[in-house]
Amino acid sequence: MVLPRPVEGVLTECRQVSAEGSVMVWAIEISPLPPGFRETSLRLIRAAGLVVVFVVLGGRMASPAEQDHFGIPQVKFINEQISSSWTDAGLKPSEAATDGEWCRRVYLDVIGRIPSLEEVRAYVADSSSTKRPDLVDRLLGDEFVDDYARNWTDVWSTVLIGRDVGNEMVSRPGMRQYLRRSFSKNIPYDRFMEELVTATGANANRKDADGFNGAVNFLIGTLAEDGVQATAKTAQIFLGLQVQCTQCHNHPFNKGKQNQFWELNAFFRQARALRRFNGSRDIQWIELVDEDFPGEGGNAEEAELYYELRNGLMKVAYPVFVDGTEISRSGYVPRTLESGENIGAHRRRELASLIKASPLMAKAIVNRMWGHFLGYGFTRPADDLGEHNPPSHPELLDGLSERFRQQSFDLKELIRWIVLSRPYALSSKATKGNHRDDPALGEQPKFTHFYLRQMRAEELYESLLTATEADQTRGSEDAAKKKDQWLSQFITTFGTDEGDDATAFNGSIPQVLMMFNGDLIKQATNTGKGGFLDRVANAKMKNAGKITTLYQAALARNPSAKEVAAANELLVARKGDASGALQDIWWAVLNSNEFIINH
Amino acid sequence: MSIMVDLPNGMNRRHFISHLMGAAALAVPAAAFTTTLLANATDLKKRHKSAILLWMGGGPSTMDIWDLKPGAPTGGPFKQIATSADGIAICEHMPLMAKQMHQMSIVRSMSTREADHMRGRYAMHTGYVPNPNVEHPGYGSVVAHELAAQVADLEIPPFVSVGSGSVGPGFLGMTWAPFQVDSNGNVRNLDTGIDPSRLEQRLKMLSTIENKFIDEKRGGSAEDHRKVLDKTVKLMTSKQMSAFQVMQESKEAQEKYGTTGFGRGCLLARRLVEAGVPFIEVDFGGWDMHADIFPALADRKLPELDRAMSALVSDLADRGLLDDTAIIWMGEFSRTPTINGGGGRDHWARSWSVVVGGAGFKRGVVVGETSSDGKEVATEPYTSQDVMASLLKSLDISLETTFTAKNGRPMKIANSGKVIKELFT
Questions:
Q1: Distance CA A150, CA A148 (A)
Q2: pLDDT by residue (tens digit) across A220-242?
Q3: Residue A117 DSSP label
Q4: Preferred mutation among B221, B241, B345 to probe A, highest tally of A CBs within 10 A
Q5: Which end of chain A has fewer beta carbons closer than 10 Å to its terminal beta carbon, N or C?
Q6: What pTM, to 2 d.p., does this model score?
Q7: ipTM of the complex, rounded to two decimals
Q8: Count of CB atoms within 10 A of residue A199's CB?
């Protein structure tokens, strides 16, 4: 059944007009009219073989205050919470971002690239009062599903397996294939978590490998040494708990205890990564399976593990979830004995159910998503929700998490609420009333203005392709591999077993050199026939119009008078070679702080 | 005021003027400056201090390299050998370093708290434990920041990181970020492919856009971007970039350091010291040996380390650079004295060693000791901030220096670490 998303408003009239066969028609009146609704709007619901048509007959238009949240109660909740924190802190929000700024931002954050020239022009020209929710509907809808899946595949590959391409246990194409499918289908977040935590099967999609399941790549490279990394990563990503230090000792300043680490670790002890060889010595693929865990004492009915305290004493641990819930101690994978008796417990599946039931799961993802869109999560780092690290907006975090749960963990709805909220729509220009709200200075964020952040390397790459209208088959595995190759120049690994890595794509000199002289920028600024610059140069318009076109394509705004003057100087310097001058201007625009910083 | 001064030997006018400018930037009264200048006139050119951090990513087992416990149940199979320093014995798989130990000193009483890679890496690079609200600057950024004025004509970055990203500049800002190159000294994308006058015109256009965005007061990263642009332009046009061309070294020199990643990295470090770069970090990862540690050390890691490190020490000494160049060898932590079931050692921070030498450090001494099984420090324990404070002292950087973090909080250099007194005479 497809239900329209809930709208806020009072149903002032509702009557059945006709019923013929399986089609019913109802006339309704809603005040205020929700976004996208006007008189004579039709809404269809199909359910149980019936088609119900609602005809909107009337209702008053939404007032400005109501437009502020576009009739979406969750957006209203965010706005109220955030404004009351402004009042409490004695801060005043910045004015709203311009249409061009907002449009650029929402494209970047939702689908991982800037809007194309046509897209930004169409948005700015749209005079409808519902242009924002309309654009968000489109970005989250079928039209952009490939872009959307590509972007969130990039984001989640980094979260789940890092950027290091050197780990031979992990198949990046396999991981990506799983993620692309998940985000194309917008599978609910709880199921997403469950599929990753409980996955079994082959990690790579080879023609001779049975049972390919790309989701196994999340855990498959982390099971060495009794799954210490699997434990730490699962807790960090899906529960917002940083437990890696409690592996060796009770944590000095958060409440994490060493036993909790090993009790959580016990859930991963049935998981095994098996290397599959095929005729030669080369690994063909790796398979993640669950096998009986006999326990370190050899009694699978009471399958325990031992860990060492700092004073050298050994202690025993069985699977116990972070909230204290115990599961069966049996290490057997579930089966029915000849006697008909059922024995065993599937430890990772038990873990997934416990994570699903835990309030921490929703909080962790809401905090992560908020940080993705607003630049800072409610805690820093966004994946540490431990008691030692209180959030900046506890009620908002809790309330939003609860609403996300009620919405069946629908990630697209969560995105809609955040990007339509008031803090997301504010200008990044700080004012006298809020310049002290600067999380870069170590303050807790108050979201009184939009915080600058540099594009991720993947976003820059895709944005350059968009700005130059490069003909690319986006989202294909070949395109992804090409991007990987380009990204690898920025990636450093730290030479540890845990595969820690970092990116030098952070405003460093090598990054500027790449933007000055790299192949990608050479390609973007080439003046070859039929290319973007060539088309602009030969378009039937004045030079001023051509300069404006370049600005709109890259920065979603028009040039200032000073910038036009500077551009004209280049036209003079190139002695009438308009194409060469446009190349210089384009190079400068793409190299600017304004281009690479999401603002 | 006009004072006639003879130019120090080997110093051209441009070099001299840039020293003057560097000093002017510090607002040292001209008269005071001239006095100092005259006092040091003969060796001003040579006397720039530098430091080289040999970073052993992953956590090397120091009780198998610098502090052996032969015969102890925790001791492992390696024997120790005598060295050129009286009373100092090290691992048998470090024969070349054994001949250089009179130039170096070992601190065997390190005791730190962070045994997680990323936390340990941060703590050993900054002297602070990770804190969500402040990003502390690493060694390289601090030393570069303090010593940059002494090489005011330096056009290449004052902090070069070979083979790894090191730790960032924290609140000191992107100007002091590590400049990362691979061990062959390759710097990508240096060639613009257009003539300089056109580049200049493009840069003028670019700065119009940059400045507009900065003036709109949207946040610090807009301004940071411009600063890094400026440094990049300087570097692209600099002759000093030839310092990175490590492959120009003779075959013998390359052989001496070893034709390995770490070998070339150390050779590159020496070239950069000669060019005046205040801080170079050379990364040598892969010490995270949870299984089969002894063959991995004996066959792979130690020979590569031994050759490169000994070549670096002796080469710097032969060229008269060691007295002004501090060397520091360490990882984020060490490895458990207890050997695990897989023949490996796990993470261990409670008792371990670092090795230092050059610049103002006392040489050929051992500081502190560990218990007979290596599990405890038996003497006064030293921490990350103590090592940092000692390095700064060896470079004559004042330990009274205080930074102001972005949140306005004062931050004492090296987190108020105490100097390891046995390392100084």
A1: 5
A2: 988 887 898 899 999 999 999 98
A3: H
A4: B221
A5: N
A6: 0.80
A7: 0.86
A8: 20
